[in-house]
Amino acid sequence: MPLSLKLPPFEPNLATSVETNPKRLREWLIALPMANPLVAGRQLCDALAACNRVKINADDRIKLLDEYSAIQGMLASELSVLYRVPGLPLKEQAQTAAHLARRLCLELADGYKIALTDRLDKRLSFGNNKVVPVLIQKILSQFYSLFQLSCRVYSAMPEGIWLEAHKLFRYAIEAHLIDQSSTETAPSLARTYKYILLLSLAEPQRFAGAELDKVLEIVENYAGYAHFQPVSQLGNAAGFFLVNLEEDKPPQYLGTRTLEGYSGGAVLLDTSELVRHLHKSLAALEAKAPLAQDRSKVLMWIEILRRVSRQWTIAAKRTFQRIASNTPVNLCLGLRSAVLCVNDGHRLLQPENIFEEDLEENQDALPVTHWRVINESPGGYALVSENMPAERVRAGEIVALRAQGHDHWMVASVRWLQQMDKQCLEIGLQIMTVRASAVMFRPTIGRKGEQYQPALLMPEIPALKQAPMLAAPKGTYISLRELSLLTAEGEVLIRAGKLVEQQMGYDLFEYQITEEALV
Fold first, then answer.
1. Domain endpoint, select from 137, 160, 186
2. How far apart are CA 16 and CA 304, in angstroms?
């Protein structure tokens, strides 16, 4: 099957402005003002775009692109410092840095696509069987870098990228190039393609920045245990994901989908062996956790492994249909703010003990932000905000939510984010409870003199066999740890039970009351 890729148009009038000598190009690249990555990024993008729009011999083009690629690695690190921020939406400078990094990936991919197309057009070119898989891997590598960037800033992949990645993989299969390594230092094109697929299946928009670093580490360390299979060799649906090679879509969990009519137009990604290795790593970590010096980091690593393992086994399926809505709502972001909201804006302890740094003394100082519900289901809501202050929202954060004009606050968790244009931001919320209670807590052992911290008490739901739970700041949870709770009724001593989930903004765990203390 001929390989058809989208290429930039040629513009002969740019020929005089393009440096085609690799040595002189290297000297120009070294002289770029790397201390100012935005300026250097614009200059590099403009030069690369011009190079992609003039006629150059394929082998000469590859040499030039390799020079550009070498400097891209250094510049990408500088740009990432600007756009890797704690929350969304991005400030203007961060948006500019992300746009330049994105453009660099696209332009380099375009350059290698032009070289690949030129090479394939000359069917009898010497060394094609060695050069072609290298070029395909380099294009896929740029797509992978682009996808990582999109995950970092919670934006969608550009239109057409998924389809071109599938086309390149399919061509490599049909040309018997799939298992050829590109270079001694770069992974094979098949492994690079697996990186892209596995990252998508991990649902990266649900992870905060530090968590995403670990997800990428898992993807790259374990991708070799994922395998491709023809659709005719389907076993148990668990651990099998359908990759439709003819659509501009990411892979999807197979589930109950019929495979009729796919034949050569699709492959299966089998993650069963990969998940078995993840479970072994998980068991080893759990065994070491009790003796770990930094338990919070180990617990975070364990929780990320569990989440990724679930996604690569049986991806979550939507139970209820979304219902369109247009309801204005108020949102308070963060556990501390949610505690104040649930407690009608009143503090539980004296002002000198808590909240002094974050909130003013009166209720009007609550950091309320205004959003609009765009769709809802029994389990949660999708919200949009067009005037959100910069860097305020992050995945895995607790929020308090209520309809405008109403008094009652619900408690939810930010499950996913998507940065739209400018300051427009979409988030997905999962409702945790509609009846939370504000409490203060501190450990009873080993933390003498420690101040009480805010937390949310979530009641038991016997009908769902759900035990009472506590949502506390991240790092609080230790199995069987005893905590002192200050509630509206007085002091209660509890013991931590099962960890339900650990997100970037909180630990959620079950507990049992050990005794009620006298205050």
1. 186
2. 52
pLDDT tens per residue across span 52-111 = 999 999 999 999 999 999 999 999 999 999 999 988 999 999 999 999 999 999 999 999
Q: Which whole-number Å values give the CA distances from 57 to 67, 81, 136, in the listed order?
A: 16, 36, 18
* 473: containing domain: 437-516
Please give the Cα distance from 450 to 470 (Å, whole number): 19
**Token pair listed for 204:** 């990266």
Q: How many domains does the chain have?
A: 4
**Euclidean distance between CA atoms 437 and 406, whole angstroms:** 18
Residue 496, domain member (yes or no): yes
Look up the pTM and report it: 0.91
> Which of 467, 471, 512 has its CA nearest to residue 492?
512
Does 351 map to a domain?
Answer: yes
Q: Which two tokens stand for residue 461?
A: 């739901």
Q: Which residues of 465-497 are buried (b: 16+ CB within 10 A; e: fewer)?
A: eebebbbbbbebbbeebebebbbeeeebebebb
Closest to 240 in 3D by CA, of 267, 215, 222: 267
